[in-house]
Amino acid sequence: MRLRNRVACIVLTGGFVAAAAGAASGVVTASPPTTTIAPTTTSAAPTGVSERAIRDAKVGWSRFVADNYATPTAILDPCPLLAVDAANAGVTGLGLTATDLPYGVSLVRDATGVGIISIVCGADLAKGATPAGATLFAVEVTILDGQAVFPQYVVRVGGTNTPIERAAPELGGDMFGRCRNEPAFCAASWHSDGLVVTVKLDGPRTADSEAQVRQLLPTIVPQVVANLAAVTPAS
Predict the structure, then answer these.
(1) pLDDT tens digit sequence for 152-191
(2) CA nearest to 195, candidates 153, 230, 138, 135
(3) Residue 11 domain-assigned (yes or no)
(4) Does the structure show a pLDDT above 60 at 34?
(5) Same domain, yes or no, for 7 and 123?
């Protein structure tokens, strides 16, 4: 007696089962393959600029100020905060044109609180930008410890009624960002444990100007903190 269909074979290979039917149709059916799920990983949440990094930056700041205190506007040492190439990269990264004005460094004394000193690097914001339509950049760092509190500094740089916000998680601390008309510039400042880093832009004003200066903080602040920590005592 002829069978119209007969089972040809059952193949077992490492847990995978395939059943083949030998018939005129020759159709082979197989169980679906198993699916392997890769283990998931989670990344650690940003912790901000560390206390040690801030402490080391303060030490470097103090060394530079001590070495140049007698000649605050005639400093021969290079800027300890940010190299001109890094400053220009920050400006052009925003889609703006960097100025070709000299990139200077000076110490600026200010009456905020009982008196503070800032290391300032960048173009002179009081001068007209060249080429036409370019954006001037400046960065300054001060230490408030025992001299002033951050709200006082905010009023001095940002003006009255400037809100203070929490900074991005990768930075930690506090910040503010604001554009002013008198004097005309946009500024964003980051503060943590008495250390303040401020960036200023002065160029063609648009609806994006405040957002642009704020955007600089997450990239500029870590560079400035690291560069200050690398300052060595004068020989």
Answers:
(1) 999 999 999 999 999 999 999 999 999 999 889 999 999 9
(2) 153
(3) yes
(4) no
(5) no
For 5, 7, 11, 19, 138, the CA distances from 32, given in Å and listed in that order, are: 23, 20, 14, 12, 64
d(CA 111, CA 57): 23
Residue ranges making up the domain that contains 65 = 51-229
Domain-located, residue 234: no
In terms of Cβ atoms closer than 10 Å to its own Cβ (0-12, 13-18, 19+), residue 124 is middle
The answer on 118 and 22 residing in a single domain is no
pLDDT, tens digit, for every residue of 102-138? Answer: 999 999 999 999 999 999 999 999 999 999 999 999 9
Give how far Cα 3 sits from Cα of 7, 18, 23, 28, Å: 10, 22, 9, 18
Q: Domain tally for the chain?
A: 2
In a shared domain, residues 180 and 115: yes
pLDDT of residue 46: 56
Asked whether the whole model's pTM tops 0.90, one would answer no
Q: Is residue 212 part of a domain?
A: yes
Does the residue 94 lie in any domain? yes
Angle between helices 84-92 and 209-229 (to 10 degrees): 160
pLDDT at 226 over 90: yes
